[in-house]
Amino acid sequence: MAAYSSSLSFTLFSAASTPALSPSITSKLPLSRSLFHRKHLNCTSPILSVLGKKSSNYTISLSKPDSSASTLTFSKLFDSFFLVCTSVALSFTLFLADADSAAAFVVTTPRKLQTDELATVRLFQENTPSVVYITNLAARQDAFTLDVLEVPQGSGSGFVWDKKGHVVTNYHVIRGASDLRVTFSDQSTYDAKVVGFDQDKDVAVLRIDAPKEKLRPIPIGVSADLLVGQKVYAIGNPFGLDHTLTTGVISGLRREISSAATGRPIQDVIQTDAAINPGNSGGPLLDSSGSLIGINTAIYSPSGASSGVGFSIPVDTVGGIVDQLVQFGKVTRPILGIKFAPDQSVEQLGVSGVLVLDAPASGPAGKAGLRPTKRDAYGRLVLGDIITSVNGKKVNNGSDLYRILDQCKVGEKVNVEVLRGDHLEKIPVFLAEILTFA
After folding, report:
1. Is 186 considered catalytic here?
2. Is 172 designated active site?
3. pLDDT in tens, 244-275
4. Range with the poorest average pLDDT among 66-70, 184-188, 281-285, 335-339
5. Mean model confidence pLDDT for the chain
6. Which sign, positive or negative, has the C-alpha torsion 303, 306, 309, 312?
7. What is the chain's alpha carbon radius of gyration, rounded to the nearest angstrom?
8. Taking every annotated instance into account, which residue ranges of this chain make up the domain PDZ (predicted)?
């Protein structure tokens, strides 16, 4: 029997390797005509090499001096036999492997976010459970059946203030409601009761009976040190959409807007270009650390939708109001006890100040002797006192008067300077309190 001097070349690569980077291993295996016997060829060894090494090269040369045709036939047979062994071994390996090992063959590309994106995502996820959706229900009588039904007449946003179940929102969100419902991010809904409200500052406090684990108070920040240009985030339910996040910057500070309920000015309001739309009212305005810095309350827009100019009541103003409402159910605020004319009427007279239209005798101004506007015996209009300053601070219009009184306390004595006829007089007035109940 003629002897064979033989070698075979083949290369195996793992799924994670490439031919250019894989090391090469060359082996010389002795072969004889009994090549297909198991003791001369271990068919699983190449598979084990693949699983354990990135690349393996085996070289077996087949040569027969007297027959080139038999060499070619033998090479084809060996290739077919090796392919069968490889398929069987791989199938057996995958059969024994668990699901996790099989999953390792699947290559997935993880979503990569920038640092600022991750911070925004984290802020939304951490604060969303604290933000609620408020539905304002009104009682309506059916015209045909005369049944009384509760129908939604408005909606807005709010946020959890403390673990006692207090929820803060805007007063105009709950105005005129017969019933109120509060919905959390997980769609759990609770009936709410009004604890108190401040119409002048457009702030209201509700209370719900919810489990302690459901109540996640929002972190309270500070609005005194805010800067124009710093990033802000608004979370709310615009147009009834579930928990929406908008971002922007503080575009202005110390703005002044009028209360939607009373028209009384609200000072030191934050202006932002973060999109605020109907339904965002009462929701929180947050800084980059996720702390509350204001309550979204109004927008400036001819169309009724966001025009990039939104306003938020600063948290420093809100905090004192909420504390009074939670503790007493009311807000005490000093007043002069007068009714005054529109600013345009005073401008037509060619003077600046606040024209007193009425000063009830039971009020602070009436007791101090301020004169109201009235008609004489002939029906002619007699102008009352025109307030020009309070405690030395000039009063040009009604907003100035409100701003000065907001800095005073109930029971405090103030010196009111008035224009009476053609001369100025100073009149001391002791301020009384105005009560706002739920």
Report:
1. no
2. yes
3. 899 999 999 989 888 877 778 888 899 999 98
4. 66-70
5. 77
6. positive
7. 41
8. 325-422
Higher pLDDT, 150 or 343: 343
For residue 163, count other CB atoms closer than 10 A to its CB.
10
Please count the CA atoms within 13 angstroms of the CA of 427 that sit on its side-chain side.
22
Annotated catalytic residue, options 56, 281, 306, 389:
281
CB-based contact 366:424 (threshold 8 Å): no
What the block records as the tokens of 278 is 């109907």
Find all residues with CB under 8 Å of 169, minimum gap 6, and list them.
134, 156, 157, 158, 159, 204, 206, 281, 282, 295
Determine how β-strand 310-314 pairs with β-strand 265-272.
Answer: antiparallel
3-state secondary structure of 83: helix
Please give the helix or strand (H or E) that residue 399 lies within, else none: helix 398-406
Tokens of 318: 């809100």
202 is catalytic: yes
- Give the residue carrying structure tokens 């090499």: 49
Q: Would the pLDDT of 358 be above 70?
A: yes
Of the candidates 172, 200, 312, 389, the residue annotated as catalytic is 172
Could you read off the pLDDT of 229-247 as tens digits, one per residue?
999 999 988 887 778 899 9
Please report where in the chains the tokens 């985030």 appear, as a residue. Answer: 233
Candidate from 147-156, 166-175, 312-321 with smallest mean pLDDT: 147-156
Q: Which residue from 320, 318, 299 is spatially nearest to 308, judged by alpha carbons?
A: 299
Tokens representing 71? Answer: 């060499």
pTM: 0.63
**In whole angstroms, what separates CA 397 from the centre of its chain?**
37
- The single residue listed with the structure tokens 């016997």 is 37
Predicted confidence at residue 421, as pLDDT, reads 85
